Structure formats: C-alpha cells, structure tokens
Amino acid sequence: MVRFLLNDTPVSLSTAEANQTILQFLRETRELTGTKEGCAAGDCGACTVVLAELSSCQQRLHYAPINSCIALLSSLHLKQLICVEHLSEHQQLHPVQQALVEHHGSQCGFCTPGFVMSMFALYHNTDAVKRHDVEYALSGNLCRCTGYRPIIDAALSVCNNVVADNFKAQQATTISALLALRSSADAPQKQLTKNNSTQTANKDNPAINGAGLLMPTSREALQHCMKNYPDAPLVAGSTDVSLTITQQFRHYPTLISLTQIAELKTIVHTQTLVKIGAACTLDDLHQLCCKYYPTLTELIERFASLPVRKQATLGGNLVNASPIGDLPPLMLALKARFIIDNGAEQRTVAARNFYTGYRETALPKGFWLSCIELPLLQLDQHLAAYKVSKRFEDDISAVCAVFIVTADKQHNITALSTGFGGMAATPAVALDFEQHMAGHNLLDTQSLKHAKQWLADTFSPINDVRASALYRQQLVANLWHRFVLQYQNQTLEKTPDKIHNKQIATRVRYHA
Ligand SMILES: Cc1cc2nc3c(=O)[nH]c(=O)nc-3n(C[C@H](O)[C@H](O)[C@H](O)COP(=O)(O)OP(=O)(O)OC[C@H]3O[C@@H](n4cnc5c(N)ncnc54)[C@H](O)[C@@H]3O)c2cc1C
Ligand code: FES
Ligand code: FES
Question: Quick check: CB of 317 below 6 Å from ligand 3?
Fold first, then answer.
C-alpha cells in the first residue's frame, strides 16, 4: 500500500498503480483539477504540488514543491500531499493567493496554481526572503502572459509578512497523523525484511507478487525484490523513469522504489571525504556543495529547477549515464568512488571506470548504486565547473566542463583532473591533457594558447540540436581559458596589483 495524507485525510492506495503519476491521481481519480498539466515533462511548473515530510527530529515538517507530472505515486509514501484546492479555508484565500490577487499576479491563470504552490512552500520554509530567494523558489514556474514582476512582488510581500495559517495551526496533528502512517506501514514491511531470505514471489503476498510497486525498506529487502523481479526497473526520484511512461507510453508491471531505504539517503562526513547516499536528492547535494564545494553551487542551481531538484536523486543522474548529464563530469573530475551493492556484497568502482559506453555503466545485473564517496578538496586545489546551455536556466547542457587543478606557490600545475559532458558518447575525461599539463605554469600565456589547442583537439564531438561539433571544441578550449583567468584573478588578487586583476575579472564574466 502507498499510504499518505491527502491534505488531512489518510489515503491508502493499492501498489498496483505503480505507473500512475501524482498528477493523474489528482485530476483523474480525485477530480482535483486545480493542478494543471502544461508540458507534462517537468518544465513549466503548472502541475506543482507540495509534499510535506517529517524532518529527521520528527518535530517539524519540511515542505517541498515538486512537479506532479513526473512524480510517481511512490513519491507520496508517508508524506502529506497538498494541492491548490487545500489552501483556502472557509471561502477565504490563503495569504499567498491573496497576495497574488493584490499584486495583479495572474491573467489567464493557467500557471497560477503552480506559482501558488511554490510560493506556499517558500512561505512555510523561510521567515525572511530576499529577491534572490524568491527567484530561486519560483525557478520552476513559467508564466506566459502576466510577466514575473507582479508575481515576484507578491511573493516578496507575503513571505516577509508570514502569519500563522491553517497548516501551521494543524502542524502537531499532521505530524501525529504522519507518525501513525509510519507505524501502520511498518508492520507488513517488517515481515518482508525479516523473511526476505526465504520468501519467494507468490500470489498471496501482495507486497511481493509483482502487482506494481515494491517499496523495500532495507538492502536485504531490496536484494530480495531484485532477485524475484530481475527485469523490474529501479526507480528513485522518477524524473527520468516517469517520462518513459508518460511520453513513450511504456508500462511497467513491476517497479522497485528506492525511496524507503534510509541507508540510501544517508550522508556521512569524515575528515577526508563525504559519503552521500545514492537516493539523496539534488537539493541535498546543493546543501552539501554550499558547505564543501562552494564553486559548484551554480552548477547545481542550474540543474533543472527547484521542484525537479527536490525530487531527482544523485544516483538516478549517475546511473542513467546520459552523456550530457551534469553530475557525471563532476564525479570524474573529483575522482569519486561509487559503492555498488547487491545485498550480499558491496564493491567499489572508481567513477572513471563506471561509464563503459553510450548510456552503459559498469553496474552488474542485480546491483544498485548505494553511495558515492567524494574526496574533500585540499587547500592547494582549485575547482571550477561550467555548464553551457542554450538557455541559462532549466536547460540541459550543450557542454559541461569541470577542472580541478593543484598548483604550487609558483603557479605550476602539479596535478590536473577533468570531467566533460557533451563531448563524447559517454561522460569523458581528457586523460592526455591532464598528464600533458603537469608542470605548466598557469600565468604563462604561451602555455595557455598551447593548452587550448590541445584540449580542442582532444575530442571529436558530434553536431546536434544543442551545438555543432566545432562550437563544442572551441567551447572547451575557451572554458579552460576562463578557468585560468579566474585562477589568476583569485590568486593574484592577494597581491597589490588589484586594479589590473579586477580587469581580468570583468573580462572573465563575459568570456565563453
Ligand atoms: C525537466 C527536467 C530537467 C532536467 N534537467 C537536468 C539537468 O539540468 N541536468 C541533468 O543532468 N539532468 C537533468 N534532468 C534529468 C534527470 O532529472 C536527472 O537525471 C535525475 O537526476 C534523475 O534522477 P531520478 O532520481 O529522478 O531518477 P529516476 O528516474 O528514478 O531513475 C533514473 C534511472 O536511474 C536508475 N536508478 C536510479 N537510482 C538508482 C540506484 N541507486 N542504483 C541503480 N539504478 C538507479 C533507474 O532505474 C533509472 O534507470 C532533467 C529532467 C527533467 C525532467
Ligand atoms: S505539467 Fe509542466 S512541469 Fe508538470
Ligand atoms: S497568467 Fe497566463 S500563463 Fe501565467
């Protein structure tokens, strides 16, 4: 059973509906048609709903906006689903709706429920907001007729004057209801975990008879599910898998969800590395980057939109092995290590050995990606990640390039590590370039010219709708140039010749 609260009403759904999206459930099953379908692909935000989830201390709720058109029912388990119909009370608009009215933030109204829900999540998650916070929160919502200024004004005004709404008043009741759902869900799941070594699929056990959605809660239970249903796809955030259902009309008799396995959502810090569970969301990764890899935050913030990042997982992005995915190049440059698991045995695979062909990985049948070990940067390491796409926000990369340079005090390169997307059929490393650049000086103009040519010649990319091969080659060369200028700017800024270096910084902003 998928158990959740539809606003304040407990709902249990048969796991047979594994292929249904939350949007279909709301509109077609419950006739809650306030949530709109625009693009049906996670791009426009018309279908935004909010999932409230218990925080780890179980005393607070976190409100996450997600795109219901690309979220399968598995995303709802043990959460509260809030959609636009639930906001007004006693015929009174919710403060975020009222603010949109007062600021004239709606014309045709098609996008409005989505904006309302994104604003509602912001209203509950933050006390004071700045314009940047609003833009960040509304990054997944498109409006084609009103224009964004009145919408942003409405959000700024209401989110800086938060009053306790019905959801705040009901918080304790909602928390108790979610805890009750948890305990009722635990009973059959425990049975599955306990007996999983001996149980086999049978018609009498709806948890494992192949009727739709399986939601194991431990690695042993996951191993069991995968053994019994070797052809069933794994699904985490479902932002990729759902598109194969809604756009390619595939139907999966069985899906195995990774969302209930706590181990896959754990983050562990040591002195030298961070271990991040494969089912951690990209929003979790964003928070981690703010702390440990601040130069990566732009890359993560330009990954899709906030509702997608609240749902999509790191593991999903790495295993789908897209040659234009944004995180594989990062893993290659960081020399991350992937821990893969089959329930009986865990193995470590270097990120650099993981991508074996076009959308192919070294993950053997019966294994899943369990966690990723990211080494922390040393003081003499400089990391930069660049994403170039046709549209700045919410677009797939034409090229993604990541460089990590270790340099000595004289600015000589002692080690270089790279990762690229969009340059080959797989996420790629410029191995020869890395070796060749050892000993080169980062202030030497001749060396820069030479390096750019070398890098452009390293790849034979393809022409496609995002970029021509020539453009891609020129781009990687220019991104290296940009990296070197930024390095010079950062390191030389500590010297007295600041005016000269500020000029470099200005040029850097418009380069590439
Ligand atoms: C609107 C939109 C914008 C996007 N923008 C970007 C972007 O800017 N950059 C980018 O790189 N991608 C982008 N994507 C692609 C997608 O969101 C990401 O690849 C996402 O990280 C996939 O994660 P998920 O958890 O949703 O994967 P899912 O859809 O759940 O799974 C994807 C694949 O990975 C497998 N899988 C998932 N987890 C595991 C695991 N732990 N072990 C083994 N197999 C696993 C599944 O079986 C499936 O084959 C975008 C997608 C959408 C819809
Ligand atoms: S309908 Fe456009 S994001 Fe869902
Ligand atoms: S009000 Fe018409 S699309 Fe936004």
Answer: no
